[in-house]
Amino acid sequence: MDINQIVNGTAVLGIEFGSTRIKGVLIGRDHKVIASGSHEWENDYVDGVWTYSEKAIISGLQSCYADLKKNIQDEYHVTLNKIGALGISAMMHGYLPFDAGMNLLVPFRTWRNTITGQAADALTDLFSFNMPQRWSLSHLYQAILNNESHVKDIAYLTTLAGWIHYLLSGRKVLGVGDASGMMPIDSDTCSYDSRMVSAFDSLIADKGYPWKLIDILPEVLCAGQNAGTLTKEGALLLDPAGDLEAGCPLCPPEGDAGTGMAATNSVRERTGNVSAGTSIFSMIVLEKPMSKVYPEIDIVTTPAGKQVGMVHCNSCTSDINAWVSLLREFADLLGVKTEAGDVFTKLFRKSLEGDKDCGGLVNFNYLAGEPVTGLSEGRPLFVRLPDARMNLANFMRAQIYSSMETLKYGMEIMNRENVAIDRVYGHGGLFKTEGVGQNYLAAAIHAPVTVMETAGEGGAWGIALLADFLLYRGENETLEDYLQDHVFTGMKQITVSPDSADEEGFNRYMDRFVSCIPAEKAAADHFRG
Asked: Keywords of this protein's UniProt record, alphabetized (predicted)?
């Protein structure tokens, strides 16, 4: 019984900090969600930097947990006092430097910032390894190039998940998947690439900083390793009411890419997943290394340390949300009251009636820059040919295509590299309407796409599974086997293969999209507030 697992403290809690929502889920021994809680939030654009304030981060964590706790009280009429294990996940990358007293030296610089181009290019050349702009080491080196005064005072550098984990446990550690978004990982040692660490130290030796790189980075742990326990201070931070007991184990904190892989059972070689929310990214577990360095493809790892080819795009559903909001406002003007979920479903289904190539319409959903297509800044931009077939179906199809067009741009490189892909799992809000986003994605990446009944659970469920793996794994049991044998066996799923007509239509759309990139760049360069 769910209530017994709550009372006995055997249920497992996962909390993930997403771009627009902090979500917590409590799961039972059957890995199903017993209860959930959430907190909505948005990033701020302050002094040219995308950020979340310290206050917003802590209050958001507490609000999410309080909502979970209230929902448990309302549903089961018990107070959550004890949990079996805990996992923390968050948006990967970014820059959170602390001094020796664990005081944040500059406001959190999130993954969304594209302000580290000079550093990323220099480190890519130094390492012969693609170093994206959003990675923590790119942010650190850009701060060094900018002669920012705080750099000399850095005692610890981590990610958002790593910081929250520290606040709850006192441990300065990071899961290998999240660590692989700070700097390159050696999969054989499940730690930072020692050659690159040395190269970076040599690069900045003349600066005379009182630290070496390895001394300020978190310790790297693989899935299944113990990452500490919930301290009394951590329990009180999470639950200021004081009802939550300390002492439960924590799994290594992970990034949203790693939890997405766990939540979709895509941690084996030749499998992959696409996470589609505020941002969109694909993760393909590689059978062998890529033949050369591609700036469009990041090399990260699974939570178990296996190499993954990642195409990361900063913008996905936000522009769709804005247009749907506009259409709902128009309906309201006509006196028609609508429900958001119903409107999304109807509009997504309407897109199926559109031309396969969107009839001469092209949309850029770029709320931020997109390094994959060489844009350091973004401007949402809708373009149509004079003789375009402008109708609602084509308009919505172009909106949905735009959510994955930049991903497709990068994934075509893997296609040309003959990267083996047996299956790709889709998860996130883009796939909630059956037969729409899933079908378009299959056409975009030329591979079968599977959506499971857990597609809407997302990363909070994924990090809960990683915490569950820590608590209940068998001796020498791998993460791959644990997920397959204990979590996903018998789970309902729907798989679609790419439709050749959709593939051809999406390719024609992409030709127009690519031809319009200079116009998008001009808009970013000249259209100012």
From this structure: Kinase, Transferase
